[in-house]
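Action item from last week, closing it out:
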Amino acid sequence: MSIYDDKPWLARYDEGQPADIAPEYGNALAMFKATVARTPEGNALRYFDGRISFRQLDELTDAFAAGITAEGFQPGERVAIFAQNVPQFVIAQIGSWKAGGIAVSINPMNKERELTELLTDSGATVLVCLQSLHRDVVVKVLPGTAVRTVITTSELDLQTRNDKSVFAGVERIACPGTIDLLELLEQHKGATPPAVELGPDDVAFLTYTSGTTGPPKGAMTTHRNVVFNAQTYRDWIGLGAEDVVLGIAPLFHITGLVGHIAVSLLTGAPLVLMYRLDPALTLDTVEAEGATFTVGSITVYIALMNAPNADKAKLATLTKVYSGGAPIPPSTVQAFQDTFGHYIHNIYGLTETTSPSHAVPFHAVAPVDPDSGALSVGVPVYNTVVRIVDEEGRDLPAGQIGELVTAGPQVVAGYWNKPEETAKALPGGVLHTGDVGYMDEQGWFYIVDRKKDQINVGGYKVWPREVEDVLYEHPSVREAAVVGVPDEYRGETVKAFVSLKGPASTTSEEIIAFAKERMAAYKYPRQVEILDEIPKTVSGKVLRRELRTRG
């Protein structure tokens, strides 16, 4: 008996081989253009009371491309986008493609050290950023980078609501030496940028993922990757122009880039943006905009359940709900269903798989592993082959635990300017994920552990080495070791163990404050424990497992 005999939907999703797939469009820009032609007056973006149609988005991105080209931008160069969930992010991304460029998405929580690394590694020549980020971060790092053109914008633009509860403390700021985005768009209004040729294997954007050691790696996400997984979301869930996409995932993250932006560009469904996540505002927005689909971290759904205005009627239209990026406790899925009446479907993927490689089929209920209590992350999506292998790379049978190795049209081309890292993680174009799990006899996959020491903070990936490097900069810290410890809200949080130098005296609170000033909010340790000695093996290797038991 086949494992698919009583599950025809599993059999349907298993059909085909990776090499057989051909995206409907040759690149993500062609995908967008087809939607503009199909529904020019349909809403592309909704931002509070602001509305941008697909025709207007096409015109604005033409103007952006013409504007940066006039500033000397050349095809193949990179445009870094350093912003929250605002329409300008989408304008810059599509506009960079129209100029023949590559978009580089940057987490707006990054501080000077992190931004410097990404600008240096990508070699970005244009930087688009919020005015506040320019004032607080960008001005400190530009010297020494390849950036020639800085374009600034305000989160207050492209809407008139200016709600103080949403934009508390936000004001327009003068940024000398930069170009204002709205002025650039007005100056080049009606212009047509020079024609560019974009192939399916050209890089659409760089999305940075940290390694266990060394600097971050820029995953080269191709246009083929973007188009394929936009189609995966559309066909897997049944999305169309009648849907409304709720943008709760950060746009700089692969989930936001594909599960929000690319899905909207493909289907013609409006994308609703809210600047920053506010649980109460999100509930009101779903009700007001009639949002039907979203994908985001489980921490978002926990926050919605705990919002003061949580009520089933608020999310009545949001019937297509997916979550990825962090493990989902079955109890949380049940609590969300009890609160709002909707089931959260699991989805799993990496930056290197352009969002999903696995998902729970829409309307299906994921099984729970009876031994570990883990909720299944689903089954491989279309034209995707996932193997479970042992340390020698040999295939393991159902039920045995090993590393997930993924092949499919969504697997990225490699890491920007890092051939050795590419060869190690993606030999022959097949991704060795570093995640450990197994497949049951019915074809469901489970993630049960991490191969490395990566910490997953509400869907954001944190590597201990990066945090430890910052802690070592503290004048009183002798040794530092970082682990992930359970956290009811984030799933995991960062905890640091430190020993101090000689007579040095400091407190856990001072060390936390030191790290907070130098790292993105999700990275710095929320807990610090001071020890006389960090436990290590005879060879000097930190005993992280022992530290986790203390945490």
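Closing note: The first strand starts at residue 43 and ends at 47.
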